[in-house]
Amino acid sequence: MSAVNASLKLPLRADLAGMEPYGAPQLDVAVTINVNENPYPVPEPVIEAITQAVREVAGGLNRYPDRDFPALRGALADYLAGESGVKVPPEWIWAANGSNEVMHHLFTAFGGPGHPALSSSPTYSMYPEYARNTLTELFDVPRREDFSVDVPALLAEVKRLRPALLVLASPNNPTGTHLPQDDIHEILAETRETGPDGAATVVVIDEAYGEFRRDGVPSALELLADNQHLVVSRTMSKAFAMAGLRLGYLAAHPEVATKLMIVRLPYHLSAVTQAAALAALSKADLLQAQVARMRVTRDHMVATLRGMGLTVAESDTNFVFFGKFKDRQKIWQDLLDRGVLIRSVGPDGWLRASVGTEEETERFLSALKEVI
Ligand SMILES: Cc1ncc(COP(=O)(O)O)c(C=O)c1O
Description:
Keywords: Amino-acid biosynthesis, Aminotransferase, Histidine biosynthesis, Pyridoxal phosphate, Transferase. By secondary structure, the chain is an alpha/beta fold. It is 37% helix and 12% strand. The protein has helices at residues 44-58, 70-84, 98-110, 127-133, 151-161, 181-189, 254-263, 271-282, 284-287, 289-307, 328-337, 358-371; strands spanning 31-32, 93-96, 117-119, 138-140, 165-169, 202-206, 230-235, 248-252, 311-312, 319-323, 340-341, 351-354. It has a 7-stranded mixed beta sheet, with helices on both faces. A 3-stranded antiparallel beta sheet has the order 9-10-12, covered by helices on one side. The protein binds pyridoxal-5'-phosphate.
């Protein structure tokens, strides 16, 4: 083997020079509540079902998987019908390795040079990365002080910019707040012809935390039937306790999936992923048994933090966003020194903690009491 040439340069794209890979710290500590996972381990019957399903496909791994995974799309459609009451045919579903990849497909197909995207910060920190990777210019209309979306300002920017994509997380990360259905309705009514060259602006409502919404908060899925330019994105990573599976999906009129098929890499969803996801969906009730419990813990966290005199945003998610600290980095570090890993993200002064098990949550709350 030839010696490594220290002066060799790699032809990295100029706009990527000096950038660091994205990712929250993965540290081995007692209480890990920094990435909004479901803290409960996968129940034994689900492990059994997944093991059996993977065993069944293992012998056929010499063949490429089904590119269009109709069985999985049907099972996801059935799941959504049960969860939100909105029934869509399997062709209205698209899936990929995490909703991260679903979003990447959307940006690849609809974004790109001359096809800008628009979002509303503070919001999920991966949106700028999807945009950067796909050479899409991303614009921002900052949220109001209470983290609500400034719809008039957003629509004014839509008219000016003619964006191909408008991406809004609801409930939002890191704030935990949801977008009222009337706002989504108004946005959809105003974006039918506001994209490049008179096309629609594709409105993506990222419902990664949809299952945690409080009673009475509707899903944007209810608006799908009347809006061909609406995409509702979901994931099995959060409520479903399947972050390690990497399965995200969307529901939209079938032309959306048809367009995304152009840009997906061939056979992007492995046969193992498809089999494991189908098995997990067959046990959805068991996997989601903890969601109600997590909502209770979430409300307890919000009330306790408010009781400690902190400002806490309303939460329709499995995390709480709280502040305001003069030096949030110090609080974050002091908690870490006590074996509790949370996330320092979003506007300065605020911190985010995910719902843990009851025991983890108490450890977090008492450590926080100590450090503030
Ligand atoms: C708003 C939002 N969307 C999408 C994702 C990505 O989820 P996935 O694991 O499905 O890629 C996250 C993960 O934290 C998120 O917070």
